């Protein structure tokens, strides 16, 4: 009987512990910050205006290099952290209290405040107003507290101390951890291509993130944007520089998903699936082809020339059509790379071919002429994904080639393909 009571008592005790644990778990689930979400290391909260996002960096750096890191992270849309009010201050304090526990070297985090000698006060580099109450709240002194580098007033910067949670004045050469603040998430979160980003105020070439809606789900993709050429807003989907990355013998899946490092300084292919989605996302899309030089050692006609041509009605079908190509020319006003007919527009209606899925009736175009990874129909007048060095002969329609002005085949040194909505 006594044993039964003991067992019953233990069961009741375990039940109470489980209920207590469940209650604690439910409490944290119900009371967690519903306004905060982590996106690819960026922590976003409605505490900051326009849902701006923060990223904590646990590597130490001087102030200048830390600021450059933030700029590079989001193509000049991110800065070192600014704090405009006590609400933001509390959010940052709680965030760093949790985060800094994992890193002993992060006693101070750089803030995006620099000394303004004219105004004789600190100012936020992202343009936010610097409230005077921050001086009183954090007891900021006018004495530089670091022995690193110059003691000149212009070298003063602010840092957030994780021990006292006060701001401290330090020399800009002091190595500290830091926090980046992404300022323009709201203005670009619905951008679906480089032109949308351009209209949102983006002006720097480089890698950007876009969002596409697929069956009521938002998918994020990274694309390369040319924001300078012909007004900017161009989405780059192909670039070749030196032939180090082989294109022509990549598989169907590789061309479908894309390959290479997405950068204006690298060779890459965006991917046929994304190319289809972006080129059909608007009723009218323009294509731009850029070509640099001719590597043919037996000719000097186009050796150092730059050629470009523009085309209208550009689009790429979905995979069920084998990513069928379409483009039209506006000759004679479409540029100096085209003769108006015998160019890339001859591929209109052609299906994409790769070494493992040849849709060209003449299979030697891929196998022997190394024109794979392109829209082929009894070969082509342009194959910018062909083998960099032609397998048979120069200026004869093999490998990476283009028919310039409708009469002369060149083997370009460098190529770039990009598109933009016609609005």
TrEMBL record:
What is this protein identified as?
Fibrinogen C-terminal domain-containing protein
Q: The organism's lineage? A: Eukaryota, Metazoa, Ecdysozoa, Nematoda, Chromadorea
Please, which domain of life does this record's source organism belong to?
Eukaryota
Annotated TM spans: 7-30
Q: Where is the Fibrinogen C-terminal domain?
A: 185-423
Signal peptide feature range: none
Instruction: List each copy of the C-type lectin domain by range.
Output: 49-181
Keywords, comma-separated and alphabetical:
Disulfide bond, Membrane, Transmembrane, Transmembrane helix
Single GO cellular component annotation?
Answer: extracellular space
- Tell me which Gene3D superfamilies the record gives: Gamma Fibrinogen, chain A, domain 1 (3.90.215.10), Mannose-Binding Protein A, subunit A (3.10.100.10)
């Amino acid at each position: 009987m006594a044993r039964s009571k003991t067992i019953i008592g233990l069961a009741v005790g375990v039940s109470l512990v489980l209920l207590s644990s469940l209650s604690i778990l439910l409490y944290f689930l119900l009371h967690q910050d519903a306004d905060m979400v982590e996106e690819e290391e960026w922590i976003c909260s409605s505490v900051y205006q326009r849902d701006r996002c923060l990223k904590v960096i646990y590597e130490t750096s001087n102030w200048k290099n830390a600021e450059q890191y933030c700029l590079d992270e989001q193509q000049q849309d991110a800065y070192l952290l600014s704090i405009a009010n006590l609400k933001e201050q509390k959010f940052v304090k709680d965030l760093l209290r949790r985060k800094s526990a994992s890193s002993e070297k992060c006693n101070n985090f750089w803030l995006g405040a620099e000394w303004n000698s004219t105004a004789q006060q600190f100012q936020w580099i992202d343009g936010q107003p610097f409230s005077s109450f921050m001086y009183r709240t954090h007891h900021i002194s006018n004495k530089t507290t670091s022995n690193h580098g110059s003691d000149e007033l212009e070298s003063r910067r602010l840092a957030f101390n994780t021990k006292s949670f006060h701001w401290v004045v330090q020399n800009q050469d002091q190595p500290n951890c830091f926090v980046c603040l992404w300022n323009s998430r709201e203005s670009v979160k619905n951008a679906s291509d480089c032109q949308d980003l351009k209209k949102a105020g983006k002006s720097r070439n480089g890698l950007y993130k876009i969002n596409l809606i697929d069956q009521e789900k938002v998918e994020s993709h990274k694309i390369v944007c040319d924001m300078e050429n012909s007004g900017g807003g161009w989405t780059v989907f192909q670039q070749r520089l030196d032939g180090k990355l082989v294109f022509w013998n990549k598989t169907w899946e590789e061309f479908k998903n894309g390959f290479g490092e997405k950068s204006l300084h690298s060779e890459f292919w965006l991917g046929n699936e994304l190319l289809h989605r972006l080129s059909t996302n608007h009723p009218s899309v323009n294509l731009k082809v850029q070509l640099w030089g001719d590597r043919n050692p037996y000719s000097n006609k186009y050796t150092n020339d730059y050629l470009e041509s523009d085309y209208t009605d550009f689009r790429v079908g979905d995979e069920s059509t084998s990513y069928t190509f379409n483009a039209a020319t506006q000759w004679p006003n479409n540029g100096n790379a085209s003769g108006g007919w015998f160019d890339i527009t001859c591929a209109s209606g052609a299906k994409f071919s790769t070494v493992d899925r040849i849709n060209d009736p003449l299979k030697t175009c891929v196998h022997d002429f190394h024109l794979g990874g392109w829209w082929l129909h009894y070969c082509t007048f342009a194959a910018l994904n062909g083998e960099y060095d032609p397998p048979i002969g120069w200026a004869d329609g093999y490998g990476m080639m283009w028919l310039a002005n409708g009469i002369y085949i060149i083997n370009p040194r460098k190529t770039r393909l990009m598109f933009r909505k016609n609005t």
